[in-house]
Write a structure and sequence with these properties.
By secondary structure, the protein is an alpha/beta fold. The protein contains 16 helices and ten strands. The strands form two sheets. It has an eight-stranded parallel β-sheet with strand order 3-10-9-8-7-6-5-4. A two-stranded antiparallel sheet has the order 1-2. A hairpin with a 2-residue loop joins strand 1 and strand 2. It is globular and about 65 Å long. It binds flavin mononucleotide (FMN).
Length: 381
């Protein structure tokens, strides 16, 4: 199949990845209502077609946190994305660089910060979770500083993990020990391309930044157990002081879904927020980001940089999210699927598709610059 869209990459990833990995990426929490609403509420927004406006020159570039970007987007942090292709985060950071957008390395990426920094030639963003062990957090922040990361994305919507049923159905969660491992190996054997690329040639199979605290345990269930036991549910606004004392660069708080929380973030001097429900993977039933974004942008858009993610499956969706008030967006599953399908080149091609789709959406809504995109390009608004 020739991949011509983000949904095509999803289908290609389904055929390439072992089932437990595909479902881990694709799935959401509980009944997956928020996951579905993220996609449907965004794609359901009608665009307003305008004509005869000379759209021969379009400028899709923008500036975020002092960085000039060729497109108003960044690759979102995706835990374990590096398992989708050999040393996956290293391929992703290069793809992002080639396209002129930032890559965000997850705390729980498969490749550690140092390895990604060595693969990169420009600064990338680093995402941090609140972890009980503050010494470990300090160490991670010091590594992010050493790697010259250009922004810190502090994710606040996981004080406790939501349950994802699909992970139980595939043996990724809930079946530890030999049984779970045998189940996953069985699924991997049905995907020889992936088994060869990642299973055999993708070593070491340690778990990125977290490997030092796992003390030699390398199983995927060890990793999930670590997440369950070490993410800090006591996380609160005062913790931002701790982050600020260790991190002087741009600070972006990810996982804001309510205007009151957005105002708090602005009060405390965050440089940006990501309006996000973790791609529908945390509290199922919360608002889609397309619905949550407008009042938040209205409340704090003049005080900090509002980014948004969730359900973006095309360049048209990027334009819709900007129309709702975001200054830029994060792409989540889209890049994970593209990485699984075609590695670095796959992500570059997917981003080129997004750009081409954005160009058409901008041209036919009569906008020639990113700053011209606002609610007036939505029909019925
Ligand atoms: C498989 C997977 C793993 C994720 N891991 C992280 C993570 O480690 N840190 C984080 O802040 N967000 C994580 N997210 C959330 C994404 O950063 C992003 O908010 C979400 O994927 C956006 O929705 P979309 O996938 O519909 O684009 C993850 C999402 C997925 C799908």
């Amino acid at each position: 199949m020739i991949t011509a869209s983000v949904p095509d990459y999803r289908e290609a990833a389904r055929r390439r990845l072992p089932r437990f990995l595909f479902e881990y990426i694709d799935g959401g929490s509980y009944a997956e209502q928020t996951l579905r609403r993220n996609v449907e509420d965004l794609s359901g927004l009608a665009l307003r077609q305008r004509v005869l406006r000379d759209v021969s020159r379009l400028d899709l570039s923008t500036e975020l946190f002092g960085q000039r970007l060729s497109l108003p987007l960044a690759l979102a942090p995706i835990g374990l994305a590096g398992l989708n292709a050999r040393r996956g985060e290293c391929q992703a950071v290069r793809a992002a660089e080639r396209t002129g957008v930032p890559f965000t390395l997850s705390t729980v990426g498969a490749c550690p910060i140092g390895e990604v920094a060595a693969a990169a030639s420009q600064p990338f963003w680093f995402q941090l979770y609140m972890i009980r062990d503050r010494t470990f957090m300090k160490d991670l922040l010091a590594r992010a500083v050493d790697a010259a990361c250009s922004a810190l994305v502090f994710t606040v919507d996981m004080p406790v993990p939501g349950s994802r049923y699909r992970d139980y159905h595939t043996g990724l969660a809930g079946s530890g020990g030999l049984k779970g491992a045998a189940w996953r190996v069985g699924q991997a054997m049905l995907r020889p391309g992936w088994a060869w690329d990642v299973g055999l040639r993708g070593r070491p199979h340690t778990l990125g930044n977290v490997a030092p605290v796992l003390q030699g345990r390398t199983g995927i269930e060890d990793f999930f157990a670590w997440m369950r036991n070490n993410f800090d549910p006591s996380i609160n606004w005062r913790d931002l002081d701790f982050i600020r004392s260790e991190w002087k660069g741009p600070l972006i708080i990810k996982g804001i879904l309510d205007p009151e929380d957005a105002k708090e973030a602005a009060e405390l001097g965050a440089d940006g927020i990501v309006v996000s429900n973790h791609g529908g993977r945390q509290l199922d039933g919360v608002l889609s980001t397309a619905r949550a974004l407008p009042p938040i942008a209205e409340a704090v858009g003049d005080r900090l940089t509002v980014l948004a993610d969730g359900g973006i499956r095309s360049g048209l969706d990027v334009v819709r999210m900007l129309a709702l008030g975001a200054r830029g967006v994060l792409l989540g599953r889209a890049w994970a699927w593209a990485l699984a399908t075609g590695g670095e080149a796959g992500i570059v091609k997917m981003l080129n598709l997004i750009e081409a789709e954005m160009r058409v959406a901008m041209a036919l809504t009569g906008t020639t610059k990113i700053t011209e995109i606002n609610r007036t390009i939505l029909a019925g608004d």
